[in-house]
Amino acid sequence: MRLSNETLGLLPDGISVPTYNRARLTAGIVHIGLGNFHRAHQGWYLHRLMQDDKAQDWAIVGAGVRAADAKMRDKLLAQDCLTTLIELAPESVSAEVIGSMIDFLPVEEGNGPLIRRMAETDIRIVSLTVTEGGYYIDPATKGFDADHPDIRHDAENPGTPLTAFGAMIEALRLRRAADQGPFTCQSCDNLQGNGDILRQTIVSLARLSDPALADWINANATFPNSMVDSIAPATGPAELALVRELGIADDAPVTHENFRQWVIEDAFCAGRPPWDQAGATFADDVHAYEAMKIRILNAGHQVIANPGELLGTETISGCMEHPLIAALFDKVEKTEIVPHVAPVPGMEPSDYVELIARRFANPRIVDTVRRVAFDGSSRHTGFLHPIIRDGLASGAPIAGLALVEAIWARMCEGTREDGSTIEPNDPMWADLNTVAKAARTRPLAWLEQEHLYGDLAAAPRFVDAFEVWLRIIWQDGTDAALEQYIRQ
């Protein structure tokens, strides 16, 4: 059955559908970057509220700033912006259709439709999922990268920006000019202090062209920090086949695990939905939740994905079935990551490691190693390197983390252990590949990438361990290095 408003009542038994009148929904949120995670997470929380006759003036308007986003727009508009969410628990499969999104803006050069919609006063929140590497952060300084070509363009052409941030700034300028208040700017990406980072990007970019506007945004807009957590793999042929097996013709279904968590700082300058009534948590200190999730889950993903790629293991659950990769995960997490993670209400770090191990091992979640390993230049610097610095500062073990970095360097050389080619998988792949090849004979070359490693290249304990591991990997193979670390 083709998914649409008209066919909701004709879908197979057992498929949960919206019980609210979608024609009466009105917009309150523009979301930029409408991928699988957003629909399985933020879109779901809002849908749950709507099912209880709440938040029906907070419907989502989708948006994108890349030409590729137009393809998703076409798919979703063709099915009235409905999405089938398929929950994959280890022992069962279930599905529901969510209807919290009501429109998807045209994707145009200069982002005019997006700017105009955000400038309208019914939009009270503009949220984003644009990936960890999408915030124009200098990897070495963690400050704003004012020299990026996209940023220079937006500073010189604020009325026709390339970036989501430039579009948000122009919309805020229009609202200020009309004597209207700002909207809340809400990052939903996996960045510690994601709201603070979004504030840094928006205010810094605005200051390049209009310092007074930058001051107004900084003083009046809010940027709540949040922690988001749910695994929603990319949609491919298997997921499209699965939704059809359920009896639904949906060109943009989303599969997800049977777990989600959202912890949000309650800082919304123009109001918000009561997400806590759908299971979200509002907390004054989001940092501890962020740190636990980013250090144990997100860093853990990198711990297993890179050796998985080298050893030809295609999925994250497959990595957890591989005895050496699973043992690497267990030891690094418990001995080198957990000591630098504080507990949160109701959860000890060691218990969270066990929870994450079970989630990663769910065989129904076909989360690819390639997806998880993508953009290592952002994910290693954001997730792993801060833990290494903490370990060095406290005298704690860092040998396993140094091994993980050596495995990443080996992976970026572009071939697996069996000789097959690893296709480019990082925005900086060409540079990484060149340096990785040089590091085969001179390991220090990898750490001399100052934009990635900064002061870590001057830390003897880390440098020595990294050099030893990379030489072992090239001489004896990844398996041998993993075995040696596990035996230590």
TrEMBL record:
Q: Which Pfam families match?
A: Mannitol_dh (PF01232), Mannitol_dh_C (PF08125)
Gene3D superfamilies, sorted: N-(1-d-carboxylethyl)-l-norvaline Dehydrogenase, domain 2, NAD(P)-binding Rossmann-like Domain
The UniProt GO MF terms for this protein read: oxidoreductase activity, acting on the CH-OH group of donors, NAD or NADP as acceptor
Q: Could you tell me the keywords of this UniProt record?
A: Oxidoreductase
Q: Which InterPro entries match?
A: 6-PGluconate_DH-like_C_sf, 6PGD_dom2, Mannitol_DH, Mannitol_DH/Oxidoreductase, Mannitol_DH_C, Mannitol_DH_N, NAD(P)-bd_dom_sf
Q: Which domain of life is it from?
A: Bacteria
Domain Mannitol dehydrogenase C-terminal, by residue range, is 285-468
Q: List each coiled-coil range.
A: none
Q: Residues in domain Mannitol dehydrogenase N-terminal?
A: 28-276
Q: What is this protein's record name?
A: Mannitol 2-dehydrogenase
Q: Which organism is it from?
A: Jannaschia helgolandensis
